[in-house]
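Discussion board: Methods & Data

I've been asked by a reviewer to show the raw model output for two of the constructs in my manuscript, not just the figures. I'm not sure how much to include, so I'm pasting the format here to get opinions. Each protein appears as its amino acid sequence followed by a line of discrete structure tokens. Is this the kind of thing reviewers expect to see in a supplement, or should I convert it first? Here is construct A:
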Amino acid sequence: MTGLKAVAAVLVGLGIVVSMTGVAAAGPRDRRAAPAAPAAEAPAPSLPPAVSQAFQARFPQGKITDSESEATDGITVYYVEFTEGSAEKTATISASGIVMDVGTPVSSSSVPAAAMNAIKKAAAGAKIGQIMRVDITHEAENGVVTKLPTPDSEFTAELTSGKKTGEVTVGSDGTVVDPVSWE
């Protein structure tokens, strides 16, 4: 769940301590089973009403593909992966229904120069894959979701080096928010 990891990296980068808990989501598809009928869609993962309503209000054309929940400083937040048109996006929504951030894939040419230079430096020769711009409008702090005085953007890049994969998150100004973590 790379998109969800990117959102989690952003929250961790903001200094928020998190602990993962699962939310109902479809499991991996059994490739031996007969394919579903073309008109049938997989059911959306179950979300609390406030989260579902906030999602539908902000992304009326969005189709949820996966979700997870996390406790963050006494606040439960939901990381939602979804498609909107042909774009695969992510959103973080508080249990009270506040859309805290939205992640959108971007091309390297649309990443600010300072941020792209920081990504390249962190990659240290590794292949740079998908880059997500995460536009942050709210954060969890002291058990409360607060609106940032000025929205912020961060960029999370997927990296590949041999059989290892990793991610790095940087701010628009090139500050490393979350250093490379390899798996």
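Construct B, same format:
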Amino acid sequence: MIERRIVIRYVKALLDVAVREGDLNRVGRELMQVQMILRENSQLREFLLHPRVPPSKKKKVAQDIFKGLVSPLVFHALCHIVDKKREEILTVIGDEFKEAADEARGIVKARVQTAIEISEERLKGLKERLEQFLGKRVDLHVEVIPEILGGIILWIGSQIIDGSVRGRLERIRNQLLELKVA
């Protein structure tokens, strides 16, 4: 498995060029398309990831498949990745690029878990409050998890704010277990 820091290095280079050329959205879509094709086509993925297949053959196949689908920038990046024998990057590059592009645009990903469906109006209000608090645009995803019993759990990046009934009950339970009986 390829190290994330190596993937990030390639993504940042592509991001810089895409921003400079004003093609951030197009490059992101094309990289996601490459990633999806590789995820869906196991034969192609195995061929490109096989260490004994020479880069020249891999680039020929990539040209046949991707040349008309992606811009010259993305195609040259694919060829460079193949030349450097980092083909595994291609299976995650779309997701990583989207994350980096969102960060460059000032968009923060947030996830809300609730015990029941919440109305669009409440969801919109929550999103607006988060955007005010964070000073950034928020890409909000909602999951219904009945096991949390009530309340919400909010994930912003690596931070977790647990306002669920289940979380509160667990904290009370832990406090009670810590009490010393005299």
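Answer (T.O., handling editor elsewhere):
This is acceptable in a supplement if you add a one-line summary per construct. For B, something like: The chain has eight helices and four strands.
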